[in-house]
Design brief:
Helix content of chain B: under 10%
Oligomer: heterodimer
Helix content of chain A: under 10%
Number of helices of chain A: 0
Number of helices of chain B: 0
Largest sheet of chain B: 7 strands, mixed
Order of helices and strands of chain A: EEEEEEEEEEE
Distance between the termini of chain B: 36 Å
Largest sheet of chain A: 6 strands, mixed
Structural class of chain A: mainly beta
Strand content of chain A: over 45%
Number of strands of chain A: 11
Radius of gyration of chain A: 13 Å
Shape of chain B: globular
Number of strands of chain B: 11
Radius of gyration of chain B: 13 Å
Structural class of chain B: mainly beta
Chain lengths: 112, 114
């Protein structure tokens, strides 16, 4: 099946730092989504992107739909302790098909 | 709104036992999904449904069965549980229309098969 490659796999940062992570694929995706998963919880939708080149913000989070449609980026500005968790990208490959392909996640840890 | 609810939260099964994982959503969403998440991995789709009475296989359907008799409920059945089915199971739903790709997840069921 399709694979989404997320990088980095893990990040260790200090509170207040900015964070960047990305998701790439060998295939063209029509929709990109970013989710956050807290320990012991289900993923929560952060941002959905529907057009190539689209840049969308949700508070301190900003995500972009890559112009090639094969990648997406998520940035978090001025990280705070509650940003800790696993961030997943997900892509939708075929129009009319509601199935998503998920990346393997980026684990964010904030060092005190 | 409760959103997507799943029961039980935790379960330990012996090899060969069977069980049903329950999933209910109160958002009147047409689409519902079952995923499994293995440690350190992303989500893999087991089964999905685009409406009551309609189900289809995902990426990893073997060893599982589903039914969708109502819009709200989408139970996942494990027959003859195997250690390879030890995982965290998530149910999700999404609306029909432009936001159909925006899936909302339940809190998960952590299953151990020994």
């Amino acid at each position: 099946g399709q694979q989404l490659n997320q990088s980095p796999q893990s990040m260790f940062i200090q509170e207040g730092e900015d964070v960047s992570m990305n998701c790439t694929s060998s295939s063209i995706f029509n929709t990109w989504l970013w989710y956050k998963q807290d320990p012991g919880e289900g993923p929560v939708l952060l941002i959905a992107l529907y057009k190539a080149g689209e840049l969308t913000s949700n508070g301190r989070l900003t995500a972009q739909f890559g112009i090639t449609r094969k990648d997406s980026f998520l940035n978090i500005s001025a990280s705070i302790p509650s940003d800790v968790g696993i961030y997943f990208c997900a892509g939708q490959l075929d129009f009319g098909n509601e199935k998503l392909t998920f990346g393997t996640g980026t684990r964010l840890t904030i060092i005190p | 709104n409760a959103g997507v609810t799943q029961t039980p939260k935790f379960r330990i099964l012996k090899i060969g036992q069977s069980m049903t994982l329950q999933c209910t959503q109160d958002m009147n969403h047409n689409y519902m999904y079952w995923y499994r998440q293995d440690p350190g991995m992303g989500l893999k789709l087991i089964y999905y449904s685009v409406g009551a009475g309609i189900t289809d296989k995902g990426e990893v359907p073997n060893g599982y069965n589903v039914s969708r008799s109502t819009t709200e409920d989408f139970p996942l059945r494990l027959e003859l549980a195997a250690p390879s089915q030890t995982s965290v199971y998530f149910c999700a739903s999404s609306p029909q229309g432009p936001a159909s790709y925006e899936q909302y997840f339940g809190p998960g069921t952590r299953l151990t098969v020994t």
